[in-house]
Amino acid sequence: MNYNTSSVFAWRMLMSSAALIAASAAVMAQTTTESSDKSKDDADITKLNPFVVSSQKDKGYRSEQTLVGSRTAKSLMDIDASVSIINREQIDDLNAVEVHEVLQFGTAGVTQNQTINDDVNIRGFRTTFSLRDGVTKTGFKRNPMYDVERIEVIKGPGAMLLGNNSFLGGGVNFVTVQPKHIPGGDVQLTFSKSNYVRLASNVTGPLLQSKGLTVDYRLTVGGLSADKDKEIENEDQKFLGAGMAFYFGENTSVTVSGYYFKDNGYFYWEDFLDYNTTLGTTTAPLLAKLNQYSTKGFSPARSRDAFWRNQDSFVDVTLLTKLTENANLRLYYFGGNLVDRRRIVRGITITSDNHTLLRQDIPLAIDAYTNNAQADFTHKLAMTAFTLDTTIGLDASTTFQRQDQSVNTMPSIDTAAINYSTADDAWFAAPHPGAGQPNASQSISRPLNFSYYFQENLSFFKDRLILVGGQRWFAPGGTTRNNVTGVITDNPDPILKTHKYGIMVRPVPAVSLYYTDSSNAFPQIGFTDLHAGNDGLGPPLSTQEGKMKEYGLKVDHHISDSVAVYGTWAHYDMMLTHVRTFGVLPQGIPAGSVGIVESAADKAQGWELEYGLRFSSNEGNFDLQGTYADGKSQTAADPTIMAADFVPKKTSLLAKYTWTSGPLSGFMFGATYFDQTKKRNANYWIDFPATYNAFARYAWGKHWSVQLNLNNFTDERYIVAIAANGLVQTEPGFESMLAVKYKW
Fold this sequence. Notes:
By secondary structure, the protein is mainly β. It is 8% helix and 55% strand. The strands form 7 sheets. It has a 22-stranded antiparallel β-barrel. A 5-stranded mixed β-sheet has the order 3-9-10-7-8.
């Protein structure tokens, strides 16, 4: 981005911030704040501001409120969108250490793309990065869950609500544990095979309480160490997190949280296919099958020759203030720092003899720094006939990311008779690009993003009818520099408008019907071709639009004091327009020449069901949660072909029974079922077998519990992702975990 564009970006940010603060100050000046000597507890804290979500009404796997659906705390029943909440109880029951373990069961339409990070597919569209406390977090490994209180999933274009234009299918938000005023804590040790040990501990409570100031804290410590079946892989994590909440009277709070996470574990795409699988085509894929030599213990190289060291830090600060009885202000800052150093040694191609594996040696260094600021102002106008909730705000982010990488072709190995030392000793003793020599590619990107929005919720008949309208304008920019050639490229900087409109009707308190229409916008760089491939003489690539229309039904009903049912049924229709693809050129020479063209749209349609049941009696509680998704997709290039990584059907069940009295008091038993239909990946079909988990816990006294989790106990080892026939990710099969917890 040139100087003038940077100046415009800064000026917009300054002026919008000033306007927001001025509006807030004007409202504040109209009233005075009354002091109170009332003692503060957690219930008072949650009433402080509409930007605070309360989990006090969570029962079993049922959660009532979320922030991710509207930027303010709302009941799930009042949101005109499909939002899934995976709460702390579900995370604990599954003893989940990565997000994929809970996304299988807690939400419909969300499937796993990779095993090494949080990459997911939502309704046929890829979501590569997650959010933490509502802001996008860069990460190339699995995000830590030591201090995560719950996980929220919002489906569909998230530009309007999330302030990030890249979430088309939806977003996955990690919500951290907040400091609490009531002292408490827990420490858990988990053990498994291969020297697996995981520690997770959270402690919270008050630090200071006076008439005008209360301070609460939270401290989190975690770590993980384990070997793996594959010699090249291992787990090595260290985590330290903390949070402090300052309450200045009843109307203002400042919350600070952060963590430092060091993950030196190595896990990558380690398996490879049977060569015959490669004979499939895009229009006639073959079922992917692992090679006979790609066993559970196979490694493409030795552990001493490969590494993946990752340091990740995160800090955020939130100011909440109640300006009047009807007006509130939220100011938020997030800063992130990622240092990623790797030397990946991987297979890439299995040759026609079906046992010679071609390999690559990839030194890689990534440095990423992110700063993000948000401001949101809410106002409630309550009249006799209606209530108008207004939210206005702005988001601004700057990112620096440097990436240096080399892809070196190294000696192949014979997987039928592996002898690493023959070729690898000499290879790794010599200097290569990225390892003793300059990297082949070096780039620096500095994307900037500024956006501002408003949202109006107009409700009638005591929230029985709610009309929702919101628009957000994005002003992207920044530069990308090729450090090898010195060429600097400006990122596109058009003003992009996105929207979210909806309606919610509650004919009875236990049922709501909704409709929503939302959009994203994605600027593209480059030109289409005209006469021949790569001539770049055609029109410039158009701005892509992500569009979704969705309608649904929500139920949250207490049939009796003992039985409650809840759930969501949703039908969606989504598309991504102006897809860059390859096709026949309009003035091809010779006729029929193929090059870069734009096709109409990638599309996905379908319906989803998420449901739950809680039954309580004098003896105990029964909890059931299920999901089902059924959809179809079409690619812009060829509507007869299913889009890559789209899963047509997904089914899951999660159930448990907990005894609260009688001779079995303290026992809990549960089980899960998960299955999804096959998906297309380039020239392959990837089939997912049905998997089953079981778990049990016994708690005694007020403090102790022990839990056993048996995951995938039918020992199904299956393929998750394929990048090339020699570059495949798999799930390892059966795993058992024993956890001991002490809480107070």
